[in-house]
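Case study.
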Amino acid sequence: MEMICIRCPNSCVLKVEKKKGKIVVSGNLCPRGEEYGIQEVTDPRRTITSVKQIKGGTISVRTTVAVQKKLYFDVLKAIKDAPIKKTYNVGDIIIKNVCGTSSNIIVTGVNILPKNK
Amino acid sequence: MKTDVLVIGGGPAGMACAFSAAQNGASVILVEREYRLGGILNQCIHNGFGLHYFNEELSGPEYAYRWQQKIENNKKIKIMCSTYVTKITRGVNFFVEATNPEGVVNIEAKSVILAMGCRERPAGAINLTGTRPAGIFTAGCAQAIVNLQGKMIGKKVVILGSGDIGLIMARRLVCEGAQVVGVFEIMDKCGGLARNYTQCLQDFNIPLHLSTTITRVKGTKRLTGVYAAPLINGKVDYTQEKLIPCDTLLLSVGLTPEIELVSNFNLEQYPFTKSYAVDEYLQTTEPGLFLAGNIMQVNDLVDNVSNDGEIAGKSAALYAKGKLDITQKIEIAHDSSIRYTIPKYIYKNNEKSARICFRTDKEYRRIFVTATSNKKQIAKNYVITITNGQIYNLNLNKQNLNKNLFLSIEQQKIQE
Amino acid sequence: MSTKQVKNNFEVAIIGGGIVGTAVFSELCRLGVNCVLLEASEDVSNGSTKANSGIVHSGYDPTPNSLMAKFNILGANMYEDMCKRLSVTYLKCGTLTVSNEEGRQKLNDLLNRGKQNGVKGLKIVENKELHKLEPNLNSDITLGLYAPTGALVSPYNVCVALAEEGIVNGGTVYCYFNVNKIKYQNQLYTIYAKESYAPTPFVNAKYVINCAGANAIEVNKLLGLPEPQNVSYVKGEYIILDKSLKGYVNRPIFPLPTAMGKGIVSNLTVHGNILLGPTATPCQKDDVSVSTDSIAQIVDKVCLTIKKPNFGKTIKLFAGVRAKVGNDFVIERDNTHKNYYYTLGICSPGLTSAPAIAVYIKDMLIEDGLKTKNITPKKRKPYPELATLSRQELNKLIKANPQYGRIICKCENVSEGEIIDILNSPLKPTSIDAIKRRVRPSMGRCQGSFCIPKLINLISQYLNIPKEKVTLNGIGSEIVISDIKQYGYYARKQINTVLKQVSTKK
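After joint prediction, the assembly is written out as follows.
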């Protein structure tokens, strides 16, 4: 199958084929392309970013490492269901090992409008 | 209030400007109209920021946070949030009028950097006809509502324009529970980065309709549908117009630099960027008035924007000290494969190098970017790919620069 | 609603909060009449009034001795004083009707017709003098009929101010009162509202004035009045360009009028935007859509008069519908229902004529026995417009209230304080469009992409309503629908993934 490598802006068009039980990547300009191609057909992963509503605003969050793509919506639901704390700071872990992965969910931004006089 | 350098806009460009101007010994005032720094980065919760600067894949808010920490406790930088500049005039120095909740503010600055970014083109700007119901948003507006307020804007969404914000919002809305019916693009290829096409549309089975546009909208109070039609030989074929029921339309149809604040200055315009022409210091044709970031040209990578800020910040600091070297101005010429260059002008002076960025007319692979001065080649860089729309950065060694400069692109001769 | 008891009994009920309805309302309220204005939508000025060129016509166009001619001249003479009284902008810029040499005879005819109608100061200007007035006219445009008494106003600002003036003088305005039944019994009218969310289900009144604009015939039908002949609905479409083109034209520039109307005007707004239009497209009564063909038509027609402006600076397209009944206004008292009055076919020059029509209607009511009081009318309190203040005045204002220093709309430079003033103003508008018409947030070049999220916040916070209830232009036009993560797979028990499965098959 064909796919576009997303590792850098070069956007190589990769051809990933199974030949004699081995995965062969072609069309890549660098080794990262091969790595991506194999990963993508064997165990595709994504960094997931999302938003959680908190009192008076939202926090933005992400996974610390890429997680298996098939867990995408389980992770989003876990973010929704995570208990709401009193305060949040950038970098706080709100879920450890989300959905059994080795990734944590961390706070990337806090959006609470200041109370105006 | 008096300062060496005034930076207007506290997004990625402005923060880098302030940082760099202070590093170069200037006193700095940074004004930001929002209650906090970060600009649009605060709502760009997706990852992919900071690969160059921090060697990490950060989200927008984190990238902003890192820069904020770099400038927040710097004694040379005074940060004024919730402050909105209304007018800039000039005598010897610049006089800037602003307002904030404490009152009116008057600032006198030796140099000024504009870092106010850009705005999105609204529905009217693309002659979107039909009715004017609720449910039509620019992609960035939708992004602010969904990401900063945690509110949903609709259940069934059509997106017009495949720019990066459009693609990213397609994924965001699906991940928040909406159905994205499709992304419609008037051009024959995706406008955004290939990686965004893959991660945002392909991953979620969102169809991308190329050479197709939205012609008009339907609905009295709230949007009930949009009409889509294909383009045949560059013209909309209205006979094939088709109604697509939806309650929300997102527009990702281009960005316009926010240049109106300085329309009272007689600056040289630069039609390619819908902004003003600048020299290698990112200085406009008004001495001491600089641009940085998306107000100068719309970027696709935030790292470029920060880089602008570093250049403009340093230059503004030098200008404030009277040390900006502007000997022998040269207008950069180029072949037709290069659409435009930033800067437009460079100097044959004592600066060792200059950053030149440009965009090409189409995608190029395996090429040489060459610079010629007075018929002598002074640079030749091998480049694997320049995609259409991507900005290419050339760091030009100026030691052999002579009276003129010509940039061109040569295809690599493949030896069999 | 406020805690005040809802009032149901009135002397006079006016149906329709457009420019005519609000002018009548203010006229009667200032005479101490117990008066209610019933408006179907969420705000006054929401029909043809808001989608109008804003021109106070000098009056050389209407056929002599018509009602249009009469009220146009009378109205135009009242406008400047009225705007002063209401504290709204009146831009005394004059108007021009232009042509090439071929149109000389027709322009002269217009000049004479104008004189016959009693228009003052009309004159033909030619060549250099003309081009000095309007430097962007095409070079073949050599003749112009200059009417110094023509002027510009913001039609919705005038309309809102009239409604507010009525309220400060004791009148009542019910928005969301969409009239769908009128009962006439014992010389008393009971008017019923269609929507359950109307502020009251009905009102009673002795006098009823139908000023419902494009819907006036429908309202008449509620009392069984026949539909007049020669009714048509005409849509006027407009293009509005960014303020950065301010000065491209300095006054409304008309081409020579045709049978279809006054033609497409190269115009401006009192706030400095360039306004091009209207078209005159036959349409259905409630069709305010803009068509691609019409936009092309405006561009073509405008370029016959002026050098092509930068259409890249277009910020909005819009349209309004005007009803036409024959060739003149219809302003009548009904013979079959005592104390029922109606206005039909108030198309152009309706905006100009409105104050005169109001006086005329008031006189009819007094003739028919309406009692008025000799009171000293109160003035409406204008909201502070920060853009017009000096730095010192602005500073003083911000020191007293920091909200005036917090900018919400950066294109039009509108502060939080100004928006809160509007939320507190007599009509208590709540929709984003209503606020926009009053103090201009989201009216500018970004059309609200920066400030609409902030306006939603502000309105929700200040009125203490959920964000889901904040509307663009009334119930049904809500902008946000719910919290995030509520629909789709979040609502399902099983996570039904929409993710594409990657496979090496194929």
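Observations recorded in class. Chain C touches chain B through 64 residues (CB under 8 Å). Chain C has a mean pLDDT of 94. We will return to this complex in the next lecture.
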